[in-house]
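Fold it.
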Amino acid sequence: MPDPVDDVLLVRRVDKGDTEALRVLYERYGGVVFGMTYRVLGDRHAAEECTQDVFVSVWRTSGSYDPGRAGVSTWLLTIARNRAIDAARRRISAHCSTLTMTSSSLNLLDRARLATPPDAAQGRTGGEI
């Protein structure tokens, strides 16, 4: 179990631009963060991307960490959970947009068929199209 005081110092070092401190945090918590994102997303590739996003966020926002509010592991897992939920929502939204476009296309085809008189659907030779 990592030392909580040491973790706080690592976050403070990350805030000062220390890439080695970020590497140590990743070594300590990368697997747990990946596990959280994988459980939410259910896709290895998406979970890997989300895990990377979490640690990029830690790099950018480490100055906002307040040890009085939560431990480092709780802070990291909260970021991971939020990022994973956002990613899941984006995936659902993209999927729904695709379904909506497909549904709209089918509705247009159905309306076109209904608007076309049966005689117009036959070619010059009298056969079906």
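The two ends are 72 Å apart (CA to CA).
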